Amino acid sequence: MIKKILFFSFCLCFLVSVSANAAEKIRLGVMPFLIRTSTLTGDYSMTVSDMVVKMLQVSPSISVIERERLRVIAMEQGLKVNADNNDSIIKLGQVAGCQYMLLGSIVEVAHKHSSTKFFSNTYYDYPTNNAEDDNHEYRATLEARVVEVLTGRIVLSFSKSGSAIKLAKQNNYGEPTYLRALEAASSRLVDDVRKVLANEYAMIISVNKNNIRINRGRASGVNVGSLYKVYQEGEEIFDLNGKYLGKREINLALLRVVSVQNEFAVTEIVNNDVDKQQNIKKTDKKSAKTKRKSKKRDTEEKELQTEKPILIREGDKIEAISFAEAEKLKLSDKRIGEEK
């Protein structure tokens, strides 16, 4: 009898512990994404919503209330929910026990001929000799806002784009390229939600001579060829009234995913030497005197950089970016070393 009492006491404590841990999670309701572009044929509202929900479920700090559950609650309560009406969304969130509600829209799905240099042939599963001449870039843009149910305050409002590449000679197999672009945009959107609501950052988890591992994988919408920038936070920025606006970001390096597991990915550093090459051409046109001054300044900067190099380290923050953003990315002028 005593053993039974102890057993049931243990089970009760376990259930209470599980319930307490579940209660600590941030409760987020995800509404179906609206389609606000005529270029996307078919109903992909549920497709994108499911992508976002699946990626959010990886978070250890966020408990997702899915659209189907919200739909059932709305029907049971006789609520007329309009995604453009915050009051109806807040009411639904209150009844469903949500702390926040995520609302989003698909605002663009487009493609163009692209000669971007930042894709990898392994992305296409077959070799090609003239990939840079025959690739097409698909781009998808999502807009979203996160509403706090208790106050009705919009805690996050943003737009995220994602891109994917398809070769002109590529066979039409697998999922369409625009779906991969939507997945890339969804992945970036979810990363922002996790960062703002749960303080969960995408970051580097290990560094060695040949590759860098990151804490985002297939479950978070990462694919081979996905691009990430490595950055460090600089000084704090305030407006004229003293309001804190954030921290300056120093972009250090560009990473490209070369292999993906469910919970992590392996990346390589991509060198972005476009600006440096342009500077070299301009320098060649300078006078000998200007060259000497420039060489002296470069030597001094090199010595300073040797003393205090910027290293890519475990724990450095990263952020997914599109191909277009990678082309425009300006990296730090300082040398980037490797963690020994």
Q: What would your notes on this structure say?
A:
With 340 residues, the chain is an alpha/beta fold. The chain folds into 2 domains: 27-200, ABC-type transport auxiliary lipoprotein component (Rossmann fold), CATH 3.40.50.10610; 201-340, Beta Barrel (Thrombin, subunit H). 35% of the residues lie in helices and 31% in strands. The protein has helices at residues 2-24, 45-56, 67-77, 86-96, 131-134, 177-198, 274-284, 288-307, 323-328; strands at 26-30, 34-35, 62-65, 100-113, 135-148, 154-167, 204-207, 212-214, 227-238, 244-260, 265-270, 310-312, 317-321, 336-338. Strands 1, 2, 3, 4, 5 and 6 form a 6-stranded mixed beta sheet that branches. Strands 7-8-11-10-9-13 form a 6-stranded antiparallel beta sheet. Strand 10 and strand 11 form a beta hairpin.
What order do the SSEs take from the amino end to the carboxyl end, as H and E?
Answer: HEEHEHHEHEEHEEEEEHHEEHE
Kindly name the structural category. alpha/beta
By DSSP, the count of extended strands is 14
First and last CA, distance: 60 Å
- Per CATH, the superfamily of the largest domain is ABC-type transport auxiliary lipoprotein component
> Can you tell me the CATH architecture of the largest domain?
3-Layer(aba) Sandwich
Overall helicity: 25-40%
Rg over C-alpha atoms, rounded to the nearest angstrom: 24 Å
The CATH class of the largest domain is Alpha Beta
Query: Which outline best applies?
Result: globular
CATH topology (fold) name of the largest domain: Rossmann fold
Q: Tell me the β content.
A: 25-35%
Q: Count of DSSP helices?
A: 9
Instruction: Output mean pLDDT.
Output: 77
